[in-house]
From TrEMBL:
It comes from marine sediment metagenome. This is Uncharacterized protein.
Length: 216
């Protein structure tokens, strides 16, 4: 019985000519050009690799998809790492088969995801991201601030509390200290629903009734 699975053998035969061409090439530039001219073959080389390493059909196709991300951004890129974070079963398989060695235990997932988000949405070159990202000591505050801003608005009480409570972050952002004290902001958040109800009322009688029903 052959050591190579049938699926891998069939794909190897299908692309025999390209494998032979590749073996005859002498430079990285020539090999790169051959791969770029034959994307189906490149996908199938990854299928062969996966089949040879006891992958299920789902893992095989995911390994091909991961390869496309690697080709576009590089194996060590934020995009490639986020792909593995989003596909843990593939990552686990690749580690078990020793196709990958980095288990991701020291990756900073929030930073990786914001890297990818900014590169996609803002068109920022990842090489220049250091100028945009906060120092490590305020990174958690930075991500919390962004989450609150997207959920409640950048002038929300939630964002103002963060600015009022973290001088280092506020200075890094170049923003002023909020006028409202933290204690007042906290109470405003606590009673947000009532404030919103109050703003919708049209008569003094309605406002008075709401106040009387909520003495706290």
């Amino acid at each position: 019985m052959p050591d190579m699975p049938v699926e891998a053998l069939e794909l190897s035969i299908k692309h025999r000519d390209l494998f032979e061409q590749y073996d005859l090439l002498e430079t990285d530039e020539e090999r790169k050009a051959l791969k770029e001219a034959n994307p189906e073959w490149v996908d199938d080389t990854r299928r062969i690799e996966a089949y040879k390493n006891e992958a299920s059909d789902d893992i095989v196709e995911n390994w091909v998809d991961r390869g496309k991300t690697v080709d576009e951004f590089s194996a060590g890129s934020s995009e490639a790492k986020v792909w593995l974070l989003d596909n843990p079963e593939v990552h686990k398989w690749a580690l078990a088969q020793e196709l990958l060695t980095d288990d991701g235990s020291d990756w900073n997932e929030p930073v990786l995801r914001i890297n990818v988000k900014w590169c996609e949405e803002l068109g920022i070159d990842i090489k220049h991201l250091d100028a945009w990202l906060p120092p490590p000591e305020i990174a958690d505050t930075y991500f919390d601030y962004n989450e609150k801003g997207e959920e409640f608005g950048w002038n929300s009480w939630e964002c103002q509390i963060i600015l009022a409570s973290n001088e280092a972050f506020r200075e890094w952002k170049g923003l002023d200290m909020p006028d409202m004290p933290v204690e007042a902001l906290e109470l405003s958040i606590k009673h947000r629903d009532l404030f919103e109800q109050y703003d919708l009322l049209e008569t003094d009688e309605e406002r008075k009734a709401l106040k009387e029903a909520n003495p706290e």
